[in-house]
Amino acid sequence: MTEPAVKAQRVPIKVRQFPPPHLVLWPGHARGSAIWRLRRAYRIAWRRRFGFGDYVRIGIGWLLWPLIGTVLAIRNGLKLGGAVARSGGPSVARQIGQQIHLALWYRIVPRYYYIFELHRPDLRQRAAEYLTRIETKSGIYRALKQRKDRTKVVRINDKVSFSTFFGKNDLRVVPLFAAFRAGLRVGNVGSEDGRLPEGRDLFVKLIEGRGGIGAQLWIAEPYGRYRSSKGGETCTLEELVAQVREASKQGDYLIQPRLTNHPDIVDLTPGALSTVRLLTILNDQGEPEAVNAAFRMAISKTSPVDNFHAGGIAAAVDIATGTLGAATGLGLGGDFRWHETHPLTGAQIRGRKLPSWQEAVALAIAAHRLIAPRVVVGWDIGFLPEGPCLVEGNVGPDADIHQRTELRPIGNARYGELLAWHMERRLGL
Asked: What dihedral angle (degrees, nearest 10) is formed by the CA atoms of 245, 247, 253, 256?
């Protein structure tokens, strides 16, 4: 077992004003189901925390949300509805009406109507089962956060701490060449003499960045120069280090080697490293369990990252076999296509098996064991020629990528079941 339940425990949790939380559970929440248990626990958690002012704030949210939800539905329908209607979906007017219904009845922000393809009747019937970012990131993950002894918590969102900790525990991680904070070099990162290796492509990114923001690839060229994959500017290694040091005055940066994809999947990207987002969660025996996975691919030659929210595509991965489904983008911007083959390279995606898949799952589980009792982690794992490699860890992983690529909600799937179990334990239910 993990940790004992505590009766009537109050947990820190944020509740957004828009959309306001459920006061009662609407149809679709079968009593005793995972999503019913999870939302019941979520509701109890914020009610225990709320004071008079919080209820006033949420009351205002309830009064204004019908208007706000309607405006958002109209805006999204006019922007994105035409593409859905032309592909055989409902009319734009009907799409707007369905979005308003989902916003008022299930608290689903209208843009998720398109991300989750809720214009499809079979998926819309399961609308109550979708986990939303507002519930997970602001609420459930905060409630499950470890708070007893913070000195033992590994800050895995910090890429320097991440690489150092797991590297010392003999797990394959991305090596670090240098790191800079507030204009100063971090002394215990990189070689003892502080020199960076020459002639290797380098990857620069924020130490605690998300979504590929601030990432830049520098390609090694003859005569000791490096070329940016974005703007095409060139500089020497010394000049590059000076740029990164100066940039770190606004945000902490690190320098890593550029990693290359395993030969078996090199044709699934135009250049950027492809990674799998592998979701693990502690089960009721206190053991990490792999529950969902999505393989991400860049579709632009100039993109240094494969991030799903940065314009890339992703395919669901069968947890048991490592087999890919069809790939898709986020579902916004009017592009709702599903790709059997890579849109740029033409390589087959659906039915493809990732190399060393069981090793990748074992790597994620081994890493999660080292940081238990942290409940949930989203691991970014690269498939390198030498084997799977830990790239990053996310303590507040987004469920959108899994629900989008799997074309199903996961509130009543294994992930939802275990989140409900942990919430009930934490609240003493």
From this structure: -70
